[in-house]
Design goal:
The chain has 461 residues and is an alpha+beta fold. The protein has three domains: 99 residues, Rossmann fold (3-Layer(aba) Sandwich), CATH 3.40.50; 70 residues, 2-Layer Sandwich (Dna Ligase, domain 1), CATH 3.30.1490; 253 residues, D-amino Acid Aminotransferase, Chain A, domain 1 (2-Layer Sandwich), CATH 3.30.470.20. Helix content is 36%, strand content 24%. It has 16 helices and 20 strands. The strands form five sheets. Strands 13-12-9-10-11-14-19-17 form an eight-stranded antiparallel beta sheet, with helices on both faces. It has a five-stranded parallel beta sheet with strand order 3-2-1-4-5. A three-stranded antiparallel beta sheet has the order 7-6-8, covered by helices on one side. Strand 12 and strand 13 form a beta hairpin. The protein is globular, with a radius of gyration of 22 Å.
Length: 461
């Protein structure tokens, strides 16, 4: 096991990793920007090192500063959390060169899955189902038009090196393909310094289902069931749940089985999440793979009883999986709401000082957060300030528990999207479990949804 772990992240995920390390008896090192000097992850780590000024590129993305912090504190492993450098193959390689264990998959696997075109090719070779699309990177707008004509409209253009909805365009008219290609490619260059594009057939009413993978360095792979992540705005997840109402036991078993078999074929290790689109006929298609711990991992922890971060650290240390597939049983239902510092109507970021803070509690309620009263939400970083997770013996109880917990959550001094969550949980499609990735769009466009949102804003303290 590791002697000391440096956490190359901040906020709630850094705190989550510190907690897992404490239970494993492993000392931790927190790194922080000057703006984060009073953060909880700094307070609760065994050691702390300042690595630069507030901008991420000068602190949390500053590889020399991170490696220097690891060297001076004699940390023998680095946990990247999610975001920042968690899926940066070059950073993982540098860690290896410096004899520091990167807690995640091997660099070549991160690189393979980080390029969406190569990931599609690898997924196809490993036996995962794919949507019809371009065989590789599109050379130019003319090829994009030809492929769109071959696979049929509508299509979606995606950045080969992208994610999070950037460099992505839906096209329903063949005449609009060239302009969409140019716009999406320019966005991809700006966001990822890589303008390569590929194309897939667009599914009109998809559900976003992901399978949690766990694999050791001895060739054993299991899955921990699925998460439904269809409540999204501009491809950014807002609410996740497990299990999904869209999956039958037979479909769940099939998705898990093909996911495990694919990871065995490519020799995957550590944590990973395979993301799929599920169409209205119950057919699923590989979309991408995230080679890190997910923001929404707590919903899987709640229904399986597996401490995912603890196991991730064990696997990185070379220890074998402690579970077989038959040991994994999903019990009850879990839901996670991401609480962001943003306007609940426009979704514009709303940084500032939290003047009053009360986290909900009670049976079946979990809050992962690094916020507290007088904590300042900074404009330099992601706007998420908390993850509210509930568990119940069934989905109906979980929804009722989430509504109750949201009513107890007090965050004053800034605006948050808590009213949005209240409105969404009252949406008939969500209540019935019959929704797709456009549920937020429909909620914000309907008079009923607008009325519920206004009412939730008035009722939220």
């Amino acid at each position: 096991m590791f002697k000391k772990i440096l956490i190359a992240n901040r906020g709630e995920i850094a705190l989550r990793i510190i907690r897992a390390c404490k239970e494993l008896g492993i000392p931790t090192v927190a790194v922080h920007s000057t703006a984060d000097a009073n953060s909880l992850h700094v307070r609760f780590a065994d050691e702390a090192v300042c690595i630069g000024p507030p901008p991420s590129r000068e602190s949390y993305l500053n590889v020399p500063a991170l490696l220097s912090a690891a060297e001076i504190t004699r940390a023998d492993a680095i946990h990247p959390g999610y975001g920042f450098l968690s899926e940066n193959a070059e950073f993982a390689e540098v860690c290896e060169t410096c004899k520091i264990k990167f807690i995640g998959p091997r660099p070549e696997l991160i690189r393979l899955m980080g390029n969406k075109v190569r990931a599609r090719e690898a997924a196809k070779e490993a036996g995962l189902p794919l949507l019809p699309g371009s065989p590789g990177v599109l050379k130019d707008p003319a090829e994009a038009e030809r492929v769109a004509k071959e696979i049929g409209l509508p299509v979606i253009l995606k950045a080969a090196a992208g994610g999070g909805g950037r460099g992505m365009k839906i096209v329903r008219d063949l005449k609009a393909v060239a302009q969409a290609f140019a716009t999406a490619s320019a966005e991809a260059v700006s966001a990822f310094s890589n303008g390569d594009m590929y194309m897939e057939r667009y599914v009109e009413k998809p559900r976003h289902i992901e399978i949690q993978i766990m694999a050791d360095e001895h060739g054993r792979v299991i899955h921990l069931g699925e998460r439904e992540c269809s409540v999204q705005r501009r491809h950014q997840k807002l609410i996740e749940e497990s299990p999904s109402r869209a999956l039958t036991p037979e479909l769940r078993e099939e998705m898990g089985r093909v996911s495990v078999r694919a990871m065995e074929r490519i020799g995957y290790s550590n944590l990973g999440t395979i993301e799929y689109l599920l169409d209205e006929q119950g057919r699923f298609y590989f979309m991408e793979m995230n080679t890190r711990v997910q923001v929404e991992h707590p919903v899987t922890e709640m229904v399986t009883g597996v401490d995912i971060v603890r196991e991730q650290i064990r696997l990185a240390a070379g220890e074998p999986l402690r579970f077989s597939q038959k040991d994994i049983q999903m019990r009850g239902a879990a839901i996670e709401c991401r609480v962001n510092a943003e306007d609940p109507i426009t979704f514009a970021p709303w940084p500032g000082k939290i003047t009053a803070y009360n986290a909900p509690g009670g049976y079946g309620v979990r809050v992962d957060s690094a916020a507290y009263e007088n904590y300042s939400v900074l404009p330099h970083y992601d706007s998420m300030i908390a993850k509210l997770i509930v568990h119940g013996e069934n989905r109906e109880i979980a929804i009722a528990r989430m509504k109750r917990a949201l009513s107890e959550f007090v965050v004053q001094g800034i605006r948050t999207n808590i009213p949005f969550h209240k409105a969404c949980l009252a949406e008939e499609g969500f209540v019935q479990g019959e929704y797709d990735t456009r549920i937020v769009e429909r909620l914000l466009a309907s008079e009923t949804g607008k009325r519920r949102l206004r009412q939730a804003i008035e009722e939220t303290p």
